[in-house]
Automatic annotation (TrEMBL):
It is a multi-pass membrane protein. Residues 1-28 are annotated as: Disordered. Belongs to the binding-protein-dependent transport system permease family. It holds the Pfam family BPD_transp_1. InterPro entries: MetI-like, MetI-like_sf. Keywords: Cell membrane, Membrane, Transmembrane, Transmembrane helix, Transport. The lineage of its organism: Bacteria, Pseudomonadati, Pseudomonadota, Alphaproteobacteria, Hyphomicrobiales. The keyword Iron does not apply. GO terms for biological process: transmembrane transport. It is found in: Cell membrane. Signal peptide: none annotated. This is Taurine ABC transporter permease.
Amino acid sequence: MMNMAQARPLADARKSPVQKAPAPRPARSISPQVVDIGVQVAVVVVLAGIWEFGARFGALNPFLLPPLSMVLVRIWEDLIAGTVPVDLGLTLYRALTGFAIGAVIGIPVGILMARSAVVRWFFDPLVSIGFPMPKIAFLPIFILWFDIYDTSKIIMVAFSCFFPIVAATYAGCSSLDKWPIWSARCFGAKERELLWEVYLPMAMPQILTGLQVALPVGMITTIVTEMLMGGRGVGGAMIMAGRFADSVGVFAGIVQIILLGFVVVKSVELIRRRILIWHPESRR
């Protein structure tokens, strides 16, 4: 039989906990968002390099496509002279003012179309006809009705933004799940409470999508109206440079439009995430 001296180590071994090897730390993976941003930056850098070196070394006609460095120098000179802030400010003011007017009118119309058969009967043919139609064709009419200054430009932008906002709002409000609405009515919710606490929160993602679609449309409309009507603004400066065969000035306006559009679109995306912080899409 086993003596006490031999049994004690075995008993101690049974009592002592099993020493597990430390688990290896998982390797840090790069976030997909960081990868996407890196790829986008790399694409922009490659295209900018092709533009610069292609124009510098004669692969591209420097008059038709001036080097990027010359364009950036022109933007810096205009920035120092004060013309860039004025032009960008006027363009942004016209675009955002017209966009706001279109949203203030379009969202209620879309909600009423979804909730009232009479309103839908009246507006549905107008939206169906006006949505695919090129709105810029109405610019001569707006010039005759209003003026050749900011009023007609802003109304033209509001008119262009109105239709996508109405369509998105109507689609969002007419496709809501009926169970939350019925449940709210069973608990005694009034129509105003249904609107603010049920309809708008549930339709908000699609309404914001319509606003995100309408804002670039408003920016494009603003640039086109400035080109056609002249005056201060990025579009007016570009058309004036084109009349004097100033290709550097034209491309300087294009770069300004790209930067302005990028800032505006990304700002709207941040606002959307902030508003829909409660929505599952924010968690994704």
